[in-house]
Amino acid sequence: MERRWEPAGPLDVELALGPHRRGTGDPAWRRTPDGSVWRTCRTPDGPSTLRVNVVAGAVHAQAWGPGAGWSLETLPALLGAFDDVSGFRVRHDVLADVARKHADLRIGRTGRVMEALVPAVLEQKVVGREAWRAWRSLLGHYGEPAPGPAPEGMRVAPEPVVWRQIPSWHWHRAGAEAVRARTIANAAWHAAKLEAAATTQELDRLLRALPGIGVWTSAEVRQRVFGDADAVSVGDFHLAKLVGYALTGEKTDDQGMMRLLEPYRGHRHRATVLIWLSGLRPPARGPRMAARDYRSF
């Protein structure tokens, strides 16, 4: 199935779809040399593979699998067509240039909770490399082959029932310790209720009622599921330091970050994305944190 869609303004497809990529080699996300972005999704109608590129300002998309129709129908939302940027104003001079450079920044929405929740839980309290390794391993063992002519190795995340049935030793083999494994398995029991959440506020309430899911995980999920431009990843290991350094020249903590972001209320997540895109980073004071390989414990 195919669809051609003309966005209202400039669109950077890789920037819009980048938040759904979980590290280099993500089995659910690929960028090919022709500039196309490939993405798999477990839609309400079943698995699908989506290929997206932009030609002469128009988005051209192809989809395969039982969920192809759903993927093409929701394509504009995925690419940020419903992202309301009204009311957003740059309040710090340091962000003025990056905001102009990335005026095409749009925060899309997937409408799919479990595909955002599982990798978010895997990323709790560990370095990204470790979480992405676990994600690749789990999709390689339990995901389905991507429908259609997808690049080699692409997989579709498994259904909730599969996440519930993964034995403890396979979680361990993937590098996810028991706490994160239990959090994902428990959330999978409530997947239907989570997927039915109608608003970002409702999803936040449902997620944070589950053991092992707090403010950071909820924000990471809602940013992707609802395109919540105000959901700040409070508790992130790096974010507060980045925000503080970019806006004041000094690192800060979560409370300080929220004070600095208050002028952007309604768009606080959007402001943090622009800060990340600015490239402003505090000077490194030591070696990078090493990944802990839970497979050896």
From TrEMBL:
Instruction: Return the Gene3D superfamilies for the record.
Output: Hypothetical protein, domain 2
Q: Which InterPro entries match?
A: Alkylbase_DNA_Glycosylase/TA (IPR051912), DNA_glycosylase (IPR011257)
Database matches in SUPFAM superfamilies: DNA-glycosylase (SSF48150)
Q: State the UniProt keywords alphabetically.
A: DNA damage, DNA repair
Cross-referenced PANTHER family, in alphabetical order?
A: DNA GLYCOSYLASE, DNA-3-METHYLADENINE GLYCOSYLASE
Q: What is this protein called?
A: DNA-3-methyladenine glycosylase family protein
Native source organism of the sequence: Nonomuraea spiralis
